[in-house]
Amino acid sequence: MPAPGRWLIVLSSGLLCPALGCTQRSPQSAPAEAQARPGAPSASAPTSPAPSLSSPTPLTSAGPAHKPANDLPGGGPGSVHSRLGMVTSVESHATRAGVNILEAGGNAVDAAVAVGYALAVTHPSAGNIGGGGFMLIHSAGKAPVAIDFRERAPAALTQKNFDRMISAGARDAGAVGVPGSVAGLNYALDHYGSLPRHTVMAGAITLAADGHAIGARQALSLGWNWKRLKKSPEARKIFGNGQRAKRQGERLVQPDLARTLRTIAQQGNDGFYAGATAKALSQLGKHSLLTEADLIAYRALERQPLSFDYRGYQVDCMPPPSAGGVAVALMLQALGASLNWPGTDPGAAAHWFIEVAKRAHAHRRFHVVDPDSTDPGSYQTLRKNWLQTRFLLDATPVPQPTAATPSAELHPLYEAARKELEHTTHFSVMDQHGLAVTVTTTLSAAFGAKLIAPGTGVVLNNSVAAFGTAGADVPAPGRRMTSSMSPTLVRNAGHSVLLLGSPGGDTIPNTVVQILSHIIDDGMTLSRAIDAPRLHHGFVPDQVRYERRRWQAPKILEALKSRGHKLHPRLTAIGDANNIMAVGDEIYGYADPREGGLALGPSQLTAAPPTP
Questions:
Q1: Confidence band (pLDDT; 50, 70, 90) for 606?
Q2: What is the mean pLDDT of the chain?
Q3: 3-state secondary structure of 417
Q4: Separation CA 533–CA 128 (nearest Å)
Q5: Relative orientation angle of helices 508-520 and 346-367, to the nearest 10 degrees
Q6: How far from the centroid of its chain's Cα atoms is residue 232's Cα?
Q7: ω into residue 31 within 30 of 0, thus cis?
């Protein structure tokens, strides 16, 4: 049974309360396709040996292997379900690129890589080959794998040029970090995929070469960022129509990007990190720190996930340099240790979540760093602490359970904290054999540094600006900057049952935790948990943000206010969760309506995957 009163938007039945502003849908059979509505280390560090995660048995016409049922409630109204696999992403063309790979006999890793490359074409504000990200992979009965392809600082980075770049608004070539997405996607495909690279990338290449109609969300993002983008001749040529940004429905053709993608398909990493593409990336102009040596030295790395128990489920979070994964682990364990508190009072539940969240975010901001740039012993001690059930609350107790703790009292570096700006995107894939992939990728700001390397079509990140100004994660040559990106897996009886993640900068960990708790603690379906209104407190600024357009619970807000929390309504959405749930042989997908994505399952599968 769901824990009574968990969070702040449920009734004892576990169903969303209409008075709280959640979208209500009448029960009906799920369509085959559901499209959501748009909403407004050292350079030479070696790659770790791959754990024994073999590719699943090739697909056959015999159908999926049986998976044990669990007590999760299913997809819910508006979700898509299939026994053949599932893909969810923020952009419909990218989702279909992944589904096409599943239908062609590929596994979930093949499909995820196809989605990742397609998003670089169709969702260029965050999807990318010029940025970085994190990926979790799990095959039934085997240990999960974490692939780190976060960007690195160029070797020439100094505090002086970092300070200059920050004062310039983090929008010039000095903000560009060494991109990791190509290395990460290719690493996943080489080690855990089943199809050749040219097959997996064919969809993205076609979308770039032949063009595609710009979607509603992508058009909005172009319009919001056009003032900066149009200052780049390359960006103006690609994304503009005269002096204005391209609009929804207009065709976006990217021949330079198509050429770059073809080169990667033919040559692998050498098609991006060496040769003509690398030369172009290293000649971005004034203030650029990126060199061909930085590019050729880049490696995607396998790391051990942060794994722990939550209410009998196994949760796997991305480890550092994902600081978001650390925050998710800290929050869930603190909440898991408080099963009988605060009873049935939803106002108290909201207060408790906020208090836990602000403590986790204070730790995330100041105590997490690239593990390859710190002493191994110190890092292992930190990992051990993060996986202790009461570490967060023992380190920073809640002195007054009925009153807000000011952020300034939680950490001496409060005044030095800065607000993050990360424009990310998340997607999830599962195949009929239970192979699961959850991925979050970013350019940092929307369209990154607002720069495109001439002749490549590659939108460049501004991830160097993601370093902090205080605490452990400060600028250093070759260091991977931490990130709030938090792809998360939930397992039961050796099988993945939830694939979670979201964009949203420092709101990401809180979004993941709320959705997970709504499902496991409150018994919500996948769609209701994603539709539910969200709260956020990121330590700084010291305020509780809530979704004004989705939040209509005055008693909850008054309960928070009476406890001393400062409330801040937010017109924009908090997060965009394109997530997956598996219950037995059924796989459910749901595209968060906040940004307008697509969840889609294959209609049929080939008898066997093509021979590479």
A1: confident
A2: 87
A3: coil
A4: 29
A5: 140
A6: 28
A7: no
CA 540 to mean position of chain CA atoms: 21
CA–CA separation, 79 and 107 (whole Å) = 22
Tell me how far apart the alpha carbons of residues 75 and 582 are, in angstroms, rounded to a whole number.
Answer: 9
What's the CA gap between 188 and 182, in Å, rounded?
A: 10
Give the angle subtended at the CA of 260 by the CAs of 205 and 97, to the nearest 5°: 25
Look up residue 174 and give its DSSP letter.
G
pLDDT tens digits, 37-79: 222 233 333 333 333 343 333 322 233 445 667 789 999 999 9
Rounded CA separation 37/515 (Å): 20
Rounded to an integer, what distance in angstroms lies between the CA atom of residue 386 and that of residue 392? 8
For β-strands 544-547 and 567-570, DSSP reports them as: parallel
**pLDDT by residue (tens digit) across 227-271?**
999 999 999 999 999 899 999 999 999 999 999 999 999 999 999
The strand pairing partners of 488, in sequence order, are 317, 500
CA–CA distance, 604 with 110 (Å, rounded to integer):
16
Please give the Cα distance from 78 to 439 (Å, whole number): 23
The predicted model gives 405-422 an average pLDDT of: 74
Q: Which amino acid is at 479?
A: R
Identify the pLDDT of residue 341. Answer: 44
- Residue 23, classified by CB atoms within 10 Å of its CB into exposed (0-12), middle (13-18) or buried (19+), is middle
Structure tokens at 258: 């198509």
Burial of 554 (0-12, 13-18, 19+ CB in 10 A): exposed
Residues annotated as catalytic (active site), given as ranges = 424
Contact 41, 481 (CB under 8 A): no
Nearest residue to 127 (alpha-carbon basis) of 140, 139, 118: 118
Q: Token pair of 498, please?
A: 């939830």
Q: Which amino acid is at 209?
A: A
Q: For residue 493, which of 70, 28, 23, 72 has the smallest C-alpha distance?
A: 70
**Could you tell me which residues come within 8 angstroms of residue 474 by beta carbon, excluding any fewer than 6 positions away?**
467, 468
Find the mean pLDDT for residues 200-207: 98
Q: How many CB atoms lie within 10 A of CB 460?
A: 29
Please tell me the distance from the alpha carbon of residue 94 to that of residue 429, in angstroms, as a whole number. Answer: 12
